[in-house]
Amino acid sequence: MAPALPRRRLLQAALFATATPAFSYAAGGGSAAAATLPAPSAWTLRPFELKDVKVGQGVFASKRQLMLDHGRGYDVNRLLQVFRANAGLSTGGAVAPGGWEGLDGEANGNLRGHYTGHFLTMLSQAYASTGDQVYADRIRTMIGALTDVRAALRKDPAVLSATGKFGTAAENVRGSYQYVSLPAAVLNGSATITLSAWVKPTHDANWTRVFDFGNNNTRYMYLAARNASGVPRFAISTNGPGGEQGLNGAAALPLNQWSHLAVTISGSTGTLYVNGTSVAQNTSMTLNPSALGALTNNWLGRSNFDDPVFAGVYDEFNVWSRALTAAEITSLQSNRAAASSAGRGTLASYTFDETTGGAFADASGRGLTATLRRTWGGPSHAGFLAAYPETQFIDLESRTSPDYTKVWAPYYTAHKILKGLLDAYLATDDARALDLASGMCDWMYSRLSKLPEATLQRMWGIFSSGEFGGIVETIVDLYTITGKADHLALAKLFDLDKLIDACAANTDTLDGLHANQHIPIFTGLIRLYDATGEARYLTAAKNFWGMVVPHRMYGIGGTSTAEFWKARGVIAGTISDTNAESCCAYNLLKLSRMLFFHEQDPKYMDYYERALYNQVLGSKQDKADAEKPLVTYFIGLTPGHVRDYTPKQGTTCCEGTGMESATKYQDSVYFKKADGSALYVNLYSPTTLTWSEKGVTVTQTTDYPREQGSTLTFGGGSAAFELRLRVPSWATSGFRVTVNGSSVSGTPVAGGYFGVSRTWQSGDVVKVTIPFRARVEKALDDSGLQTLFYGPVNLVARNSGTGYLQFGLYRNAALSGDLLPSLSPVSGKPLHHTLNGTEFAPFFEGTEDPTHAYFRRSEPKVVFGTTDSGVTNPAKSDGTTLLDEIWAGAPFGNKAALVSRVQSTVNSWVSAGLLGQADGQKVVTTAQNASYVS
User: Fold this and answer.
1) How far apart are CA 31 and CA 523, in angstroms?
2) For residues 381 and 444, what is the distance between their CA atoms, to the nearest angstrom?
3) Phi-psi region of 544 (alpha: psi -120 to 50; beta: other; left: phi over 0)
4) Cα torsion for 603, 604, 605, 610, to the nearest 10°?
5) Which of 96, 402, 515, 879 is least crowded, fewest Cβ atoms below 10 Å from its Cβ?
6) How many other C-beta atoms lie within 10 A of the C-beta of residue 726?
7) How far apart are CA 593 and CA 607, in angstroms?
8) 763 burial type by CB count under 10 A (0-12 exposed, 13-18 middle, 19+ buried)
């Protein structure tokens, strides 16, 4: 009996047989039929495009403008530097952004290229939202450059000409991984020798080689521009580093200046010259090139060890089969070798006068043509595009454990680039962007489709190295345009079955997992469900969402501590200064939005409001900066935490998603039913919607959340549909809707939608009233640790103390249960209040004030309407106090209802022996005599 095919292979076969593309893609770089993603038939709701929803003045517009200005002003050539360098192209003197987007950043810049993808997405969203041509122009500049990069990577490396010491020279851009390979006969077994080079170093990395002749790291002869002490070093060995006979310079070579280096060996004497001066001599040498034997690696710029490639410019390189005199070395300082007393090298002589191609002529007469090469060879497929070699992708295929200094999430980086390209295409209809994106997927499929299923499962399960972000979502999106069966099959190659199966079975295995490595997997699974109809994908995504919200969610909507999840339900026990990685909120918003398209459960939009109005807004500093987007990485929830808007070394993942978030604030304000029968108003935000299919506009006028409600004004023609207004889960009373001044009948339900059906006319006005109230949310694992909300807004205490502050809130609580009367408003500062001398402010304000998101609830005395009963507030073993139990019955329709609740609760506590009879009577009497805010 033939063995059964793995599930993935069976599903691929089914996909090939049934998949029907929404658009065709013209071969050879032609454009698709339309630069719009088709909405999946499985979506019962449809989003509007960013261009259809204009952002009005308010908190979102202010934050967005800061990011728009950053996108307009930042030099995109700096982002392109790492791509151009990797392809051996001129970088035009641009300086890489640094941080995660440069060779000097964390883990040697092994994530570089990701930030460019984020930036492309940000520009694309900015253009779609504003129509400002400057963003389109920047996108096209970047797409043109990336097209040139891919074209260069498809070919053998070509010389990058530069101005030399005497004429033309060859530049080796840092990050190009290029070097010059000389023929094996170059040293000719000579016992006496001189090697001479003009170099202009452009970077100060240690151990980069001017030349290195050897077979491995045992038998070799090299000249390093800098050793560990930063000075030039020549060494020769037949027994590795321990057997080296060497010469060390006396001073560092200056950067960006020409220096002449020469080494002579004659008999037992070796001499190192720098700029014509002897700086080191060894008269006890027993090794010379003849002792090395036949050598296979004869390189300029590359090391036989795992050292960086030399970054800088080469002019002449000459090798003589004799030791030049000091006078001859001196003559080389002001003349080409050919015009000096030394003459051209007799073993090899390269002038680097070539301006095209990758071959360098030998003028010694021996015909030893040198060749420009890459250390990693070249791409395995013509679609490859990256800011670093393909080696990380290759390494991952055999890797069994994480080491981000070797492999740092290459498919994550690929996703960011791919997403940026697709967004650029959708925004500008530039077919080059689509061609680049399609080519990347062709390349990935060519790699991954050849791997055994067990290899793929192992790869995707490795922390960090195997992280692939939201690549599945983007690949499926691309598939809806290209219609290539390989693209849909590629998306399924990222299935991490142990995670999918556990979540589909509603088995929580998240404890100990890296949060942001896994959240975006589920947006991809939903898109796979859309494309294939395989139910386990959607089921897994729904169940996963419920494992995070609320069980691993902080009040602001964020999740994770030090990037990881802990046990379900542990909130207080995970409070730290590394909570709520910003990327997690970004991806949870995407997941919530996508789930809502399938199932209109208001909990998804309740979460969306929570995270958007608190963590996402609060992660962006309210300050302009030309160089940095000023977005948090972590948001610490420890007492007195000060947000860091310039995290780590810069250009981090969270700064990337932060740029994206700030240019798409309006993407979920409105949705429409697939059949056009209803318009969902999910968020109250100053915006203008153009619903072209209906011929109407809807303008929201509001300063929400500084205003408790919104006004919607209809324009355009007339259209019949249901207006579905979200009733936030916290809006437990007072939600009211009027149309043209008349109240709309019906009973709004908190945590639902309130529908108004009619034929809407131009000039119709809908007014929505949403009374806010102050309330607390308790940490799931510690009811005494609480965070304060006013409507949708998380209020944080501003205080430099580093211990949990203690506050009581029942002292003047309203009959409605609103805790706000216990606080005092701050004049002229909306949403700011004080309590016991401490100011509370909205979390969304991007300041550098020390904040307390959580505090200790302290209600030592039973107080009603500011009247103290003199009775200590007793508590049960679980921490629930008498006042907690009384106020859990709010809202109260009147004072009598509250007093009745007090009486019944006191009776219960007295009967249980938790409260004395006399004290109980004092509590009831105080409640009866107190005055309350209604």
Assistant:
1) 27
2) 9
3) alpha
4) 80
5) 879
6) 24
7) 10
8) exposed
Six token digits for residue 89: 């192209």
pLDDT tens digits, 223-258: 999 999 999 999 999 999 999 999 999 999 999 999
Q: How many CA atoms lie within 13 A of 748 on its CB side?
A: 26
Contact present, 796 and 843 (Cβ < 8 Å): yes
| C-alpha to C-alpha distances, 561 to 575, 639, 643, nearest whole angstrom | 7, 15, 15
pLDDT, tens digit, 9 for 90 and up, residues 876-890: 999 999 999 999 999
- The packing angle between helices 471-482 and 485-492, to 10°, is 170
Q: Is the pLDDT of residue 32 over 90?
A: no
**If pLDDT is split at 50, 70 and 90, which confidence band does 808 have?**
very high
Main-chain phi, psi angles of 450, to 5 degrees: -90, -10
- Output the six-digit token pair for 327: 């006078």
Q: How would you class 657 by CB atoms within 10 Å of its CB: exposed for 0-12, middle for 13-18, buried for 19 or more?
A: buried
- The three-state secondary structure class of 497 is helix
Tell me the CA distances in angstroms from 385 to 26, 68, 129, 150, 412, one per residue in order. Answer: 20, 27, 28, 6, 13
How many of the other CB atoms lie within 10 Å of CB of 768?
Answer: 26
Element at 259 (helix H, strand E): strand 259-266
Q: What is the DSSP letter of 135?
A: H
User: Closest Cα partner for 287 from 184, 183, 194, 192?
Assistant: 192
3-state class of 908 per DSSP?
Answer: helix
CA distance 98 to 592: 33
Query: Is-contact 347 364, C-beta < 8 A?
Result: yes
The pLDDT assigned to 107 comes to: 86
Which residues, 6 or more positions from 690, have their beta carbon under 8 angstroms from its beta carbon?
52, 53, 54, 697
Q: How far apart are CA 699 and CA 715, in angstroms?
A: 8
CA distance 384 to 920: 77
Place of tokens 């095919």: 5
Using the 8-state DSSP alphabet, how is residue 409 labeled? -
Residues 6 or more apart in contact with residue 896 via CB below 8 angstroms? none
C-alpha distances in angstroms, 37 versus 40, 481, 517?
Answer: 9, 7, 25
Q: Report the predicted TM-score, pTM, of the whole model to 2 decimal places.
A: 0.94
pLDDT tens figures, 299-353: 999 999 989 999 999 999 999 999 999 999 999 999 999 999 999 999 999 999 9
Pairing of strands 312-320, 168-172: antiparallel
What does the pLDDT average to over 376-381?
96
Q: Is the N-terminal amide bond of 520 cis, ω within 30° of 0?
A: no
| Rounded CA separation 839/317 (Å) | 70
Report the share of the chain in percent with pLDDT over 70: 96
Six-digit token string for 366: 């021996």
* Residues 374, 301 contacting (CB under 8 angstroms): no
How many residues in total does the chain contain?
A: 934
- Continuous segment of H or E residues that includes residue 316: strand 312-320
Token couple for 766: 């809908």
